[in-house]
Amino acid sequence: MRDIFIEKVTVNIGVGEAGERLQQAKELLELITGRKCVETLAKKRNPSFKLRKGLPIGVKVTFRGKEAVEFLQKALKAKKNVLPRTCFDKQGNFSFGIAEYIDFPGAKYNPNIDLFGFDVCVTLARKGKRVAVRRVKKAKIGKRHRISPEEAVEFVKSLGVKVE
User: Structural domains in the chain?
Assistant: First the structure.
């Protein structure tokens, strides 16, 4: 029950506007991941950025299981297997960005697509997390069973990643 595993890996490109750049980001994410992506929508109205609630402003893909581990290993190669300690949050999850998609292993430059960067967000979990998210008889997860940032760092180090 104490073993930590990768629950999911989410790859996200935030464009901030609908239109041609969003379509390019969608094409790029499908090219890199090999999967169909989902549009993310604006949650709030912001007139200074010409955003309204429900407007598509980004794309994302979620991996689970073996695919998540394989994609994470590729993404970490783009970061040269080094992560700063500031990547980890209080729940033990971690995120990092890749500045340009051409840094990703196996990705080639496409002149039809602008140079986009993307974010990789990794959610870690332990067995028994379901009690907090199930519909019937929800319960809290005890403090000792939650994943601390230190435990997450140790888990990432066991994957062969250097944490500075």
Answer: 4-163 (3.30.1440.10)
* HSE value, Cβ hemisphere, 13 Å, CA-based, for 21: 13
Token code pair at residue 84:
């700063």
Work out the number of other CB atoms within 10 angstroms of the CB of residue 22. Answer: 20
CA distances from 162 to 45, 51, 78, 80, 100 (A): 40, 39, 13, 9, 21
Report yes or no: 97 and 79 within 8 Å, Cβ to Cβ: no
Q: What is the pLDDT of residues 21-80, one digit of tens each?
A: 999 999 999 989 999 999 999 999 988 888 889 899 999 999 999 999 999 999 999 989
Please report the DSSP string for 27-71 in residue order. Answer: HHHHHHHSS--EEEE--S-BGGGTB-TT-EEEEEEEE-THHHHHH
pTM of structure = 0.88
Alpha helices in the chain (DSSP H): 20-33, 66-78, 130-133, 149-158
Alpha carbons within 13 angstroms on the beta-carbon side of residue 28 total 30
